[in-house]
Please model this.
Amino acid sequence: MTAILQKHSGATIHTFTVGFNEPQVNESQYACQVARYLGTHHTERILETDEAMRILPLWGQLYDEPFADESGIPTYLVSKMASGQVKVVLSADGGDELFCGYNHYSGMLERLRKRAQLPVFVRHGLAGLLKRLPVNELDSAAAFLPLPHRLQRAIRRGVTRRACQVRDNLVAASNGEFYETASSHWRAGEVAELIGLSERVRETTDFYPGSFVEQMCLWDIHNYLPGDILTKVDRATMAVSIEGREPLLDHRIVEMALRLPVGLRRGSLGTKHLLRQVLYRYVPREMVERPKMGFTIPMLEWLRGGLAHLLDEHLNPSDIARQGILDPGIVQRTVAAFRRGDDYLVNKVWILLAFQLWRSEGV
Model:
């Protein structure tokens, strides 16, 4: 989109990107390289922990609902940066959903293929066995084993947590339930326990037509895209008085994409096959061929470092109990396990923190 716009624009367009000091999540150098090749007026900024600290107190006010996409932090920053130079910005959201761009689509298909190789009676037998085993309790107990941290983490990742994942995947009654289970940060029933429901919270792709890939894409188009991605961009741009537009969501592009067979949307080039073919007309292939990273942030490092005090301020058991929404015991155990070194809990901890940041606005 940027390449086409720059080629046909009568002036040099502005481009903006946010980077991080942590190399595992930083793509700013690649964005700068492409911007130089295209000849855009490029602005880059590195997001430091102290700047995130200034943004987070505004989180509840900024998004005005329980919202936990951590990339809302850099999205707000890049919007604020752009507001000093332009009044309208374009984003390319929707490309992954329309053209099968998410890596987890391939991962889900592979996991489903392996699951299908087991006869139904074998799946049910294994699921029944794992259901009778206290794997959740074993996983929690493993955290207290007097072992070196790396060995303890390896045991839990390879045995107890893996057993939990296998159990939940095996008991899935449909492809939709399988997708829900495999793509969630929470185990089956955990959200219901957290907020005191008698039944688990369910979301499913099953009522969408087509193949499993088409069902995943349609679910994301109708749920993830408007409920997360577009909400994030809309609130962040409005907060700094600029207008965000989404050219890939023009109804003509959406209708065209959804008429195409999945094999053409993915194709021999992998994810986003058609978009890649267009891109290679404007940008050398070697300049953009890299593993997909997503717009993520070093939340683990931040919550273990400069943002750690927020867990004490917003996730303390007495406040949680007084509010009467979340189970204080579950919250306390989750935070305690994260502080003991359970890195995989970072997403859950952030979700809980984001909810409490919204609650702190007095709603």
Q: What stands out?
A: The longest strand covers residues 14-19.
